[in-house]
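Folded chain entry
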Amino acid sequence: MNLRCLLVLALAGTCGVIPLGRAADLLRLEDAVARALASNPALAAEAAELQAAQSRAHREALPTPYTLGGEVENVAGTGAVSGLPASVISATEHLPAAIASAACAT
């Protein structure tokens, strides 16, 4: 009995009596490639490395920031170098090369 049902179903399937299921949506080649590329973790890692390299190149192209510094020495010294009159105050500044060359040109 089971063999007979199996043969009838096989014959009906090969003759096209039983309609085959249809795909919900057709998938175009471009869509399939886009899905495959979007879900590939190796490509995502490569894209992240490329973004990091571009960010480093952009950061290295920026000028050096303008910096100011100061230093005070011998404020609380002893003996001949005690107190504020004997203290040494120094100031430093650093201009980016582009700003310094523009200032010298004018």
The CA atoms of residues 37 and 60 lie 31 Å apart. The two ends are 105 Å apart (CA to CA). The chain has a mean pLDDT of 74. Residues 27-62 form one domain.
